[in-house]
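Supplementary Methods, section 5.1.

A reviewer requested that the exact input to the structure prediction be made available. We therefore reproduce it here, unchanged from the version used in the analyses.
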Amino acid sequence: MALRLASSLRIRLAAGGYGARSGLPGCVRSHLPQSRQVWQTPRRGPQDFWRTGATGITAGCLGSLVGLGGGFIAVPMMTSWVGISQHLATGSSLAVVLMTGSSGAFGYIRHGQIDYEVALAIALGGMIFARAGAKLMANTDAARLKLYMGMLQVAVSPLIPLKAHFSKSRPATEEKRVEAPCVDGSESILAGSEARAGHGVFDAERFAKMFVVGSLAGFLSGMFGVGGGALTVPAIALSTSLPQHAVVGTSLLAMLPPAVVGTAVNLANGNISLAVAGPLAAGSFLGGCLGSLGLAPLLPEVALQMLFAVLMASVGARTIFTARRLLAAAGPK
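The structure derived from this sequence is encoded token-by-token as follows.
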């Protein structure tokens, strides 16, 4: 009997290594009811800390250069390089999206570059379905979650260059600025009734469209730990006459409430680690500053977007290959 117990314990500990549902290497899941289970996370070494920070810098820098959140880069890097589970990487990534998105949205709010009606519609749909996405993530096998993440990366990759095409294909008059006081007293505000909160006639059809977009973006955000901007930015650009700055600002603000909901669900399910989210957030902030302020003015925009699209598709294809190999090794269930 003792030998059987020891053998069973060795098998369980081996299953709790890299890439398993158990989170960090050597993690043990507590035997509590499903609603109260938490991850028991051991102390991480300096090497893991710096790797996580470097992941944040890379994801933040690349994301800021092409106008996307870094979740699409951070999650696969954390699972393959840092060595944490798919679930812990996804949950911690969404928490970082919440922190970095808040700082980004604040700047657009200060300059009046928000359409609050569109943001409200997206946020309402996103909050409802982000919870469903986060719950589904918690109950999805790690290998299958990795497979779905790879599929999403491949699907999103062509949207990166297309997003810029959408904004450039609209009439130039929509980018015009007028001198008018904003709510906070600042001078410059984007022209057009949709660029300011509380102005213009309520458009029920547009509200419904944005609600649907927000629902899908919120579900993907909760399920995969990404910001949803790859979906919301092109949708807002196509469905409204907002200038590009207002499109980005509205998208950032709209996806904050869904990120709050998804993060709360992930906390309840134990799929967030402060040891991961802390250095990841700090690195994402530094990387975002490096990309937007340092590298962006020096690099050709179109070539950069095409390169990032190819990189995203390649990472997605590799993720799919790895996930299928894991599923094949696990065998039919």
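The chain has a mean pLDDT of 75. These observations are discussed further in the main text.
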